[in-house]
Amino acid sequence: MELLQVENLVKDYVSPEGEVQRVLSIDRFALDSGEQVAIKGSSGSGKTTFLHIVAGILAADSGRVCFDGNEITHLSESRRDQYRARELGYVFQSFHLLGAYSALENVTLGAAFGSGGDPDLARELLETLGLGHRLQHRPHQLSIGQQQRVALARALAGRPRMVLADEPTGNLDSTHAQEALELLCSLCRKQGAALLLVSHDPTVLAAFDRQEDFAVLNGAVKEVTL
Amino acid sequence: MRALLLIVRRSLRKHALSTTVTVVSAALASGLVMAVFAVAAQSRAAFAGGPVGFDAVLGARGSATQLVLNTVFHLETSPGNIPWTLYKEVSEDNTVELAIPYAVGDNYRGLRIVGTTSEIFTRFEYIKGQKFKFVGHGEPFDETLRQAVVGSEAARISGLKRGDTFQPSHGVSEFSAVQHDERYVVSGVLEATNSPSDRVIWIPIEGIFRMGGHILRGTGEDFEAEAGATIPDEHKEVSAVMLKFKSQIHGLRMENRINRQGKVATLAWPIANVVAQLFERLGWVNRILELVAYLVVVVAGGGLLSSIYNTMNERRREFAILRALGARRRTVFSAIVLEATTISALGSLLGYLVYAAIMVVAASIIRERTGVVLDTLEWHSALVQTPVAMLVVGAIAGILPARKAYATDVASTLSGNL
């Protein structure tokens, strides 16, 4: 059953010089419930913009993005926030942990705006990821690998139905990258969440049964980074 | 709500120094406003409604306010004297329940000496049913001897106790250099009444008449009393006569007779009204104090606004992440307003300590200077209205930075383009 459907998605940007640049032009993309897909694409190809639109952070100029049969492209900003809080988990390349908050608080906040945030579940996730002894540590007190695991826990803390991962191993060395990837995939499978991952790293891509090439998927001629 | 509280708590902790400074300034503002209103109200209540015990003061032609300040609060100088015969006249008036003469003009270490009759101890009630009480075995002065009764505060300041002797000085200032030769013996010390009388040293009025250097002008001509010789009544004069009427209506009649028809004396009646009029005339001082207090609140609000606003740039990434996690715009907006309100709430709580400190100091100064006692624990509506107003000011101060947080562009900020 298709969880995510993207059809005729278009996104343009206007450069400071007034020139209209098309960033995205995707005819069709779909993701089933619980499915794990990796999208290959080079830096600046518009992958992040695509994820932002799927997450409802950005609005598309035209086309449809449907989640579980509900079109999100025309939802109000407030309803898109709600959709993001309840249905999605997001893993960023640079983790984007909140420096003033402990590891446990960072993870709890991952679910705070949807289900309300369950510190017990957050604690359980961190313990599963081997950070039971680092609950009260703040991000700067953790190693890069530990920070990434906190980011993974935060993405899954709200029991999302879909996890979006934007170059999740981009800042890790190969050992930590492999470890983080395995954790992400296994936790998504355990929770039954679909996983949409974008990366330019062939090692990462190789871990997925289904791979898509963003250059093929995206018909846009020009690409800009947002 | 849990997330909001967490966001606020973390921000307050992260910006601990600016939070502390802002809380303290809000506390000073809140405490100052509460104190200005409370001190004004309590001073007015204490001066106008305190334990006076008399209905009116009869004194020299002139200002009723000066008369009251001089005789009831033992401040200011006497506006002049009235003839002893006038005292005798009103004391024999059948509408007057009690008439006690006061003669002032001397001091001991700055404490006012009041010459009067022993009726002040035997008949006068400073509060209905309550007469002056003596500490231990103290007793009223003998009107024929050089004896004195010392008020509780006067005893504390001067160190005088029963059996001690002292020499009065001429004038009402403690810097007076002219000391009288007469030596008085303390016959008793009074218990505290929490009234201006506590700061007074009472001696027989005859003692004032006979004090060396005192000239009596009851007849218009100078007369100096000789030791052992009786002073004819027509030479005697008093500073004022304290009056208590059998009924308030008699006060009205006497006021008409003395103030409107007579030309010799002034009747300050009712005393509470005279004090109230004084406070009315001094109302502008209070308005200025209120204005200053309001300005301090505005400054505190401005400080609160700028302290939070200055953190907005560094917190833009935090807001973008929170939004990416599903926080609505109104959630981050509310977090900032709640943060500002929390700072002003903490300031208001601390403001009660500032208020208490100001009240203790103000009450101590007023008591020291006038003998009037303020009740520092007395309720005043400003104690609730001011903290509520501070919360509103805090919330308003939070709106501008909150709008900035509200407008955070999530995609651009997370992509590092802003």
What does this structure look like?
- Chain A has 226 residues and is an alpha/beta fold.
- Chain A has a domain at 2-98 and 162-217: P-loop containing nucleotide triphosphate hydrolases (Rossmann fold, 3-Layer(aba) Sandwich), CATH 3.40.50.300.
- Chain A contains eight helices and nine strands.
- In chain A, the strands form two sheets. Chain A has a five-stranded parallel β-sheet with strand order 6-7-8-3-9, with helices on both faces.
- In chain A, helix 3 (103-112) packs across helix 4 and helix 3 (103-112) packs parallel to helix 5.
- The longest helix of chain A is centred in the C-terminal third of the chain and has 18 residues, at 174-191.
- Chain B is 52% helix and 15% strand.
- Chain B has 14 helices and 14 strands.
- In chain B, helix 12 (329-370) packs antiparallel against helix 13 (382-406).
- The two termini of chain B are 29 Å apart.
**Amount of helix of chain B:** 40-55%
Mean pLDDT across all amino acids of chain B: 90
CATH class of one domain in chain A: Alpha Beta
Helix and strand pattern of chain B: HHEHEHEEHEEEHEEEEHEEHEHHHHHH
Structural class of chain B: alpha+beta
**Helix share, percent of chain A:** 25-40%
Fourth-tier CATH superfamily name of one domain in chain A: P-loop containing nucleotide triphosphate hydrolases
In short:
The complex is a heterodimer of chains A (226) and B (418). Chain A has helices spanning 47-54, 77-87, 103-112, 119-128, 144-156, 174-191, 202-206, 214-217; strands at 2-14, 20-32, 36-40, 62-67, 70-71, 88-91, 162-166, 194-199, 210-213.
List the main descriptive attributes of the protein structure presented here.
heterodimer; A: about 230 residues; alpha/beta; Rossmann fold; 5-stranded parallel sheet; 4-stranded antiparallel sheet; 8 helices; about 35% helix; globular; disordered C terminus; B: about 425 residues; alpha+beta; 10-stranded mixed sheet; two-stranded antiparallel sheet; 14 helices; 14 strands; elongated
